[in-house]
């Protein structure tokens, strides 16, 4: 999708984004990389083009992986903030905080990487 956008093939990128909701669920196959990609593609499509209202309205895909869903919540928060809707941005950030707490409780550090402060010598 990014390659399409970088080569000014927005129509092809949009077709890819529009095909994602039509993908069928595979009942016994779940994958963090797959769910991450399916969340990242529409998020990047909106954000890379500066379509803040579009980003703020992205649907959150069902996933057993909270880290994958956090991609959409982040895009929605950024879109809302850039659109001037601070209340909606804060609501999306609250979802991110909930995800962070769930991951912390599960001792799942994927997606929780925080910058570590450097100790002074």
Report on this structure.
With 121 residues, the chain is mostly helical. It has one domain. The chain contains six helices and no strands. The protein has helices at residues 2-6, 10-19, 32-48, 52-56, 66-82, 86-105. The radius of gyration is 16 Å and the shape is globular. It starts with a helix and ends in a 16-residue tail after the last helix.
Q: Which consecutive residue ranges, at least 5 long each, have pLDDT under 50?
A: 115-121
Sheet/helix structural class: mainly alpha
N-to-C span: 45 Å
Mean pLDDT over the residues: 85
Approximate strand percentage: under 5%
Approximate helicity band? 55-70%
Fold blueprint:
Layout: H1 2-6, H2 10-19, H3 32-48, H4 52-56, H5 66-82, H6 86-105
Helix pairs in contact: 3-5, 5-6
Descriptive key words:
about 120 residues; mainly alpha; single chain; globular
Give the gist of this structure:
With 121 residues, the protein is mainly α.
């Amino acid at each position: 999708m990014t390659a399409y956008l970088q080569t000014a093939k927005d129509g092809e990128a949009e077709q890819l984004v529009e095909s994602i909701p039509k993908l069928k669920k595979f009942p016994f196959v779940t994958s963090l990389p797959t769910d991450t990609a399916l969340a990242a593609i529409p998020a990047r499509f909106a954000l890379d083009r500066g379509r803040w209202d579009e980003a703020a309205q992205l649907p959150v895909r069902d996933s057993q992986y909270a880290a994958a869903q956090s991609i959409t919540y982040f895009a929605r928060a950024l879109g809302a903030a850039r659109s001037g809707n601070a209340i909606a941005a804060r609501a999306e950030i609250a979802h991110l905080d909930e995800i962070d707490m769930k991951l912390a409780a599960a001792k799942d550090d994927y997606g929780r990487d925080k910058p570590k402060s450097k100790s002074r010598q």
